[in-house]
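Predict structure. Chain length: 425.
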Amino acid sequence: MSVLDALGHALGVAGSMTWEITWSLILGFGLSAIVQAVVRRETIVRLLGGSSPAALAAATGFGAASSSCSYAAVALARSLVRKGASFTAAMAFEIASTNLVIELGIILALLISWQFTLAEFVGGPIMIVAMALAFRLFVRATLIDEARRQAEQGRAGSMEGHAAMDMSVQSEGGFWRRLVSLDGYTAVSHIFVMEWAAVIRDVIIGLLIAGAVGAWVPASFWQHLFLTGHPLAARLWGPVIGPVISLLSFVCSIGNVPLAAVLWNGGISFGGVIAFIFADLIIIPILVIYRKYYGTKMMLVLLGIFYATMVIAGYIVEFLFGALGLIPAHRAARIAEEGIRWNYTTILNIIFLLLAAALLVRFFISGGGPMLKMMGGSPDGHSGHAMSGSPGGHGHGAHDHGAGDHSAHARAASEQAFPASPEAP
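Prediction complete.
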């Protein structure tokens, strides 16, 4: 096979997976945007003040309805810590934000099988409980205090601007009243587009890596790596090696699902796939961010605790689902090159692409463009971005306002985040 043929095959596999999951990504981000539009950031901070079961449950719920971008989730967790949230609750929020979101579950069901979606939503809470217990038993209060002081320095990581934006509707009223208002439509469009902007890089990279691995790496390599000739050893080895592969892949968020499909077809255990997906929070770039946010000691603690809890969750899911007969008997993840056909996938893609286009148009008409430039800004540069009535805020106030008002808000917020630098003498 020539180099061009090999590249074409890899791109064909990546393109096929992209077409397969397009509508589900739009649906998932749309539902997430709706929830984020009506849940205010100050509500989240208020409920995450401790490490009680109630606080952890609230952190899990809010995280599941939050951004699925790993970088944004990590930045937002640091923001919650700085605003007074419990460190343990903030980490629970972070885990739920990247592993219990709607779009992740839908894509897992489409590319691999529904059992993986169920396993993700069973294993996620297990990992959170194990993490909370590990913090209570093994992490000293003095170390958490040191990490909190480090967080207060506000050192920049990644997606800081995105994490600082509270784009929820600030007007009063019930869920449906706020959602169906013009401000609600605008808030949903802003959150939807910003969520896509946050994860699009990782989704593309993940699809390209999965396409290349699926097309170029021989099945024999995976069979040897995952010990497929030794069933019990494979079940024990999968949750251990899965997070290591994720750590080295540099792909986070939902972008690692296509690669998970390739690994499943290659022979990794059921629990190994789940542990691999959980490990987007310990990839090397995020470990570097942990070090900036919380210091070297806490970075190492997070790496150790997160890895251990991922392995534990992987083992529990592996043997629990195995005992219940829920592990798929056949490895048939959708990574083959099929192209575009006139079927339900094509119909759903057309419908949801039209919906995405409507939200994209609303985003730019209402002045959302400058927000894209603010995504990587300072963690303190626009903390008031979406708070109604704040200087330069982008708040969706108590009344409906038109595109001109939103544009003015966005320009003011952009100026607040990126003040003009003084001219050189």
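Summary: The two ends are 61 Å apart (CA to CA).
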